[in-house]
Structure formats: structure tokens, C-alpha cells
Design goal:
Length: 248
């Protein structure tokens, strides 16, 4: 997938959901994985021709796993090449989650603490928006996680306002497919995750379930994405309740 094609898809999402405005200072959350690195690269490129004039910084939250340190130097070098100021927020989140709390389900607490560290530093640096690397497949996987484990039909929004922090969270790659990100990042520096729970999460299980379904329904992800984003495909019980009230 070429940079031009990736930018075209990303721009559709930015325009459709009004994610970027003139004067924005956006902090890109960069874990070092393929999704966040792709977002950093694409936003840096988009900045050059975007009709909205905005600035970027990049932030990595160092979780500080006791026996496995993350080397962010490849991300620092990439940021230098892209002319994006780079900051690393050092924390003890990894040790708190795995050594002190010994969480059986570490992802929830880790995510909450990581977002808190990211939001705080972004605010300190004068940012009004935070960009995360969630893509179209993440949108689908989050829906299925909510359905399987919470009994809810829910997923994340392309844009949401964090009133306590006075920050807006945006997901510019919400229309980009993961397979295209994998292709796009083959020549970009990727930092391997040091998390002990990596590849052993409920999210990975959901991915495997959908992969199994795809053997019989190859376009299953396209169908779920369309159901999520197309207003005419929505037909759940709250609509019936509204119709019943209108009839009365």
C-alpha cells in the first residue's frame, strides 16, 4: 500500500468525522507498534498538504517492565526525520500492573494508566487533541469484545471529548484496514512490544474467532464495518420502541 493511497483513505475519515481543525496541536500516541508508527508517518505527511494547518508532537509512554526494557531509539530517529518533536513519558506502570498488583486481567488497568500518562503529558505540552492509531479492524474487534464479554453493542468513536482534561481524542485511521497498515509499515521502524501479556489477550481471541468465520464468509470484516458505519443498516430494538411510541 503506497503512502498516497493510505493518505487518501485516512483523509476520508478525517473529513467525514471532522477530526482536524485549523490551529490544532495534536499529540500522537506512539507505542512503537505498527499502528501508531503508521499514524505518525501519515499525519506528518498529511500535515504538508492538509487544508487545515496543524502541528504535531509524538509521545511514547514507557511502561518500564522490570526485566524487559523498551528501546525507543528507532522512534526518536523517525521523529527526527519527520520533523516531529518527540517526548518519552517514563512510568512504573508495567511493574505496578504485573509485579505489585499481579493483575489476572492486566490490559484494563494498564490501558487506563497509560492513557492517563499520555493525556497528562499532552496537556502539559499545550496540545488540544490526541491521535491514536486505532483502525477499522480495531473498531470491529472492539464491538465483538463488547458483545462477547459485556453483552453490549458498543465500540469506540472516531472522535470523543475528554471533559476532565479538556482534550479531544481522535482516531484518524478509523477507515484504514489493518492489512494495509501491515503492508505500509514494512519499511518503517517497529518497536517490539515487551508486554508479558502480548498475543495472549481477549482481543487476540476475538481476532482468531473472526478469522475462523472468514473461512466461510471471506468478507465478514467488510460486512461488520458496513453495519457499524452505515446509518441505513441499523435496525435494533430501540427503533421498534420509538415506532411504538409514535403509533400511540
Amino acid at each position: 500500500m503506497t503512502t498516497q493511497k493510505m493518505l487518501s483513505v485516512m483523509r476520508k475519515g478525517i473529513t467525514k468525522y471532522n477530526l482536524i481543525a485549523d490551529g490544532d496541536k495534536i499529540a500522537v500516541g506512539v507505542s512503537g507498534g505498527k499502528d501508531s508508527v503508521a499514524l505518525l508517518k501519515l499525519l506528518a505527511e498529511y500535515r504538508r498538504f492538509s487544508p487545515e494547518k496543524f502541528s504535531l508532537i509524538a509521545i511514547s509512554v514507557d511502561l518500564n517492565f522490570a526485566d524487559n526494557k523498551t528501546d525507543f531509539s528507532p522512534i526518536k530517529e523517525l521523529c527526527n526525520q519527520l520533523d516531529v518533536p518527540y517526548f518519552i513519558e517514563k512510568t512504573d506502570i508495567g511493574q505496578i500492573v504485573f509485579d505489585v498488583r499481579k493483575e489476572s486481567n492486566p490490559c484494563a488497568l494498564c490501558s487506563k494508566m497509560r492513557k492517563g500518562a499520555l493525556n497528562t503529558l499532552a496537556k502539559e505540552k499545550g496540545c488540544n487533541k490526541i491521535a491514536l492509531g486505532h483502525h477499522a479492524d480495531d473498531l470491529i474487534d472492539t464491538l465483538m469484545l463488547s458483545l462477547f464479554y459485556e453483552g453490549r453493542l458498543s465500540t469506540f468513536a472516531p472522535k470523543s471529548y475528554l471533559d476532565k482534561m479538556d482534550l479531544t481524542l481522535i482516531r484518524p485511521m478509523v477507515m484504514v484496514k489493518e492489512m494495509d497498515i501491515i503492508s505500509f509499515t514494512k519499511t518503517l521502524p517497529i518497536v517490539k512490544s515487551c508486554c508479558p501479556a502480548n498475543k495472549f489477550t481477549k482481543r487476540e481471541y476475538v481476532k482468531d474467532v473472526i478469522k475462523g468465520i472468514a473461512k466461510d464468509i471471506p468478507n465478514i470484516r467488510d460486512m461488520i464495518f458496513t453495519a457499524l458505519t452505515h446509518p441505513e443498516r441499523y435496525n435494533l430494538f430501540d427503533r421498534f420502541e420509538k415506532d411504538a411510541i409514535d403509533i400511540k
